[in-house]
Structure formats: structure tokens, C-alpha cells
């Protein structure tokens, strides 16, 4: 090998060494871009759980809130909402006395967080339509049939509590917890509603008549009592009247007349003249 060949080989080595770092940076950049494209991490938000799938198979592991790493291509993470959710449903049923009842209810529920993978595996993400709504319909019909139409109104808290308890027992095996239940409204047929209104009106009129009768009785008793008291007073006064009392009253009347007399005798004479009554009586005494 002559000097020219040695020089060319040396030059080639130097050139390769200069290009090597650039190629390395490019390779690393491509790997990072591919890594970013595969997204080997997942972020689970507040009120969510992550169901881990290995090639579509549900795994026992459930990711909580925060950042988690996954195996690209092999693992997929499905987010399941475990916050409290609300379901409003209208249900038609019949009461124990065969009255048509239309009820509107509201249910608050949530998926049990640690069982989110089982819920996804058995029910999927659309479990409200599959489980919640049919359960409410069935419970409404079953509980309403044990109460009369009037009791559904007068015993509303007891009816609501029984429905909530029944729904809790029905949904818990599906890993769904009931937080609250409330009956928004009851509505009945027009005929039954008019009958209820007529009954309430009759009860109010009867109560008013009873109050009026009680008032009349009290007023009559008061009148009788006052009359009896007045009669008793007159009787006592009559019993206390005697000859001495009458004479005393005459003397008192004459004394009052003398006190008012100005000392001048009346100038009237004749048969029609009135005597000065009582003066002679007093002088004789």
C-alpha cells in the first residue's frame, strides 16, 4: 500500500467519524418520535378508573387517578367513570286498588371503583340502558302494587325508602352502588284525581260544619249560663226584700228630696196640687 492509499483510508475514516454523531442523533430522534407515537403512558382523570386490556382481555389490575405506563401495542386502557351519576325515569304501574299510576323518579348511583373492570367486562360502558332503567321500572311496579293509590300519597316517604332498599339489593350484585333515591311525582287517572278532590272537599265541608256546630253549642251554653245567673240574681234579690227594707228605701228617697228643696213651698192650690210627699212622715217619726 503506497502513501496515496494510506491517505485515502485515513480521510475516509475521518469522514465517517464526522458523520457518525449526526446519524446517531437522527436514529435516536426517530426512535423517540416512534415512542411518542405509541404513547406508552396513560393519564386517568379525577373520578375515573382505568381498565387494563392485554390484547383485548380484561386484567385484574385497575388503574387509579394519575399517570400510568402501559405496554404499547399489547395493552389498551379503557376509562370508566366512577363519579355519582343521575338517572331519571318515568314508570307506569298499578296500585293495590288497581289504579293506574305514573311515577317519575330520580336515582343517584355510581360504579364501585375497585370493580370497574368487572363492570366493563360484564356490562360494558352502556350499563344504564341495560341495567339501571329496567331495574327502576321493575322495582316501581313491584312496590306500587303493595300500596293503595291513597297510601302512595300519604305514605310517600315509606314508599320511597322501600324502593331505594329494593334497588340497592338489585344493583349491588352488578357492582353498582345506590347513593340516593327520590320520587319526583305521582300522577293518577283523571277520574281518580277528581274523586280525591271531591273527597277532600267533602271532608273540609264536614270539618267546617262540625266547627260551626261546636260554636253554636258553646254560644247556646253561654246564653243559658247567663240567663241562669240573671234568674238566680233576681231570686236572691226578691228573697232579700222585706218591709223594713222598703221603708228604708222610702226614707232615703225623702232625704234626697229634702236636700234638693230650696225652702219655698209650691204656690199651686186646688184639688190638683201635689203634696210634698214624705215630709210629714219624717216629722211624725
Number of strand elements: 8
**Quick one: CATH superfamily of the domain at 85-188?**
Band 7 domain
The rounded distance between the terminal residues' Cα atoms is 191 Å
CATH architecture of the domain at 85-188: 2-Layer Sandwich
Radius of gyration: 54 Å
Main sheet? Answer: 3 strands, antiparallel
Strand content: 15-25%
Characterize the overall form: elongated
Helix content: 55-70%
| Low-confidence sequence ranges | 276-285
Report on this model:
The chain has 285 residues and is an alpha+beta fold. Among the domains are: 1-38; 40-81, no CATH class; 85-188, Tetrahydropterin Synthase, Chain A, CATH 3.30.479. Helix content is 55%, strand content 22%. The protein has 8 helices and 8 strands; from the N terminus they run αβββββββααααβααα. The chain has a 3-stranded antiparallel β-sheet with strand order 3-2-5, covered by helices on one side. Strands 6-7-8 form a 3-stranded antiparallel β-sheet. Strands 1-4 form a two-stranded antiparallel ribbon. The longest helix is centred in the last third of the chain and has 51 residues, at 190-240. The chain starts with a helix and ends with a helix.
Amino acid at each position: 500500500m503506497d502513501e496515496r492509499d494510506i491517505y485515502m483510508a485515513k480521510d475516509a475514516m475521518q469522514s465517517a467519524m464526522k458523520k457518525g454523531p449526526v446519524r446517531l442523533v437522527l436514529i435516536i430522534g426517530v426512535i423517540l418520535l416512534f415512542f411518542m407515537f405509541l404513547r406508552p403512558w396513560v393519564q386517568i382523570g379525577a373520578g375515573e378508573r382505568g381498565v387494563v386490556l392485554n390484547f383485548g382481555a380484561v386484567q385484574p389490575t385497575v388503574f387509579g387517578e394519575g399517570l400510568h405506563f402501559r405496554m404499547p401495542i399489547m395493552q389498551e386502557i379503557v376509562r370508566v367513570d366512577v363519579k355519582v351519576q343521575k338517572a331519571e325515569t318515568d314508570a307506569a304501574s298499578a296500585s293495590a286498588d288497581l289504579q293506574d299510576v305514573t311515577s317519575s323518579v330520580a336515582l343517584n348511583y355510581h360504579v364501585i371503583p375497585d370493580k370497574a373492570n368487572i363492570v366493563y367486562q360484564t356490562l360494558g360502558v352502556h350499563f344504564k340502558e341495560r341495567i339501571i332503567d329496567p331495574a327502576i321500572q321493575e322495582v316501581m311496579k313491584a312496590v306500587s302494587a303493595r300500596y293503595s293509590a291513597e297510601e302512595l300519597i300519604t305514605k310517600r316517604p315509606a314508599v320511597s325508602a322501600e324502593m331505594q332498599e329494593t334497588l340497592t339489593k338489585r344493583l349491588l350484585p352488578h357492582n353498582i352502588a345506590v347513593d340516593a333515591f327520590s320520587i319526583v311525582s305521582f300522577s293518577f287517572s283523571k277520574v281518580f284525581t277528581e274523586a280525591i278532590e271531591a273527597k277532600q272537599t267533602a271532608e273540609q265541608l264536614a270539618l267546617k260544619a262540625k266547627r260551626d256546630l261546636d260554636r253554636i253549642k258553646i254560644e247556646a251554653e253561654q246564653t243559658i249560663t247567663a240567663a241562669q245567673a240573671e234568674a238566680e240574681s233576681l231570686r236572691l234579690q226578691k228573697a232579700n226584700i222585706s218591709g223594713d227594707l222598703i221603708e228604708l228605701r222610702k226614707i232615703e228617697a225623702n232625704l234626697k228630696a229634702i236636700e234638693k228643696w230650696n225652702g219655698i213651698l209650691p204656690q199651686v192650690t186646688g184639688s190638683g196640687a201635689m203634696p210634698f210627699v214624705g215630709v210629714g212622715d219624717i216629722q211624725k217619726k
